[in-house]
Amino acid sequence: MIEARQRTSYLVSRETAAMNEEQVARATVESLLENGNDAIFGALFWCAVAGAPGVILFRLANTLDAMWGYRNARFESFGKIAARLDDLLNFIPARLTALSYALLGRTRAALACWRRQAPAWSSPNAGPVMAAGAGSLGLQLGGAAIYESVTEARPPLGEGAPPHGADIPRALALISRSLWLWLLLIALGEACVHAF
Fold this sequence. Notes:
- The structure is a single chain.
- The chain is 69% helix and 6% strand.
- The chain is mostly helical.
- It has one domain (2-188).
- β2 (145-147) and β3 form a beta hairpin.
- It is globular and about 60 Å long.
- It starts with a helix and ends with a helix.
């Protein structure tokens, strides 16, 4: 369990030292679902739309938001700009990612969770992605998490059982299926463009 907590700390900004198995699994699944959008699908979207410059701009905005987007006195100005740019560039990809997660899992539950729960989440883009992903997997995510020694009560995401270690490969499989769907759709789009 000590190693699991340590490895989870590489993925998330919340404190992991006292986490139990469910909390480790929850943090990991949430991170996987959100980063599926941030690291894979958002980049693919901007590559399809604007090529390499689009990917670079998207990843730069996302990285700056991760570094400076958290509100503190030192990075207040940088953080606001980085966060707004990331929100703007992520708006469409996040919803396409949420739709992909919904289509490739428990579709009805995923769409219902997205509609009901995403507006309560603090991030306009992470909310749809994680709510749809949690609903698709039949898991209950969200809830309390500790950041800088302060417990933050976060809204619930998804429905069903709390996550366990065995749900981490399920989350990875959902992302993998979504990736294959995106690659297929991009290939079909390219074929259509070249056909005309």
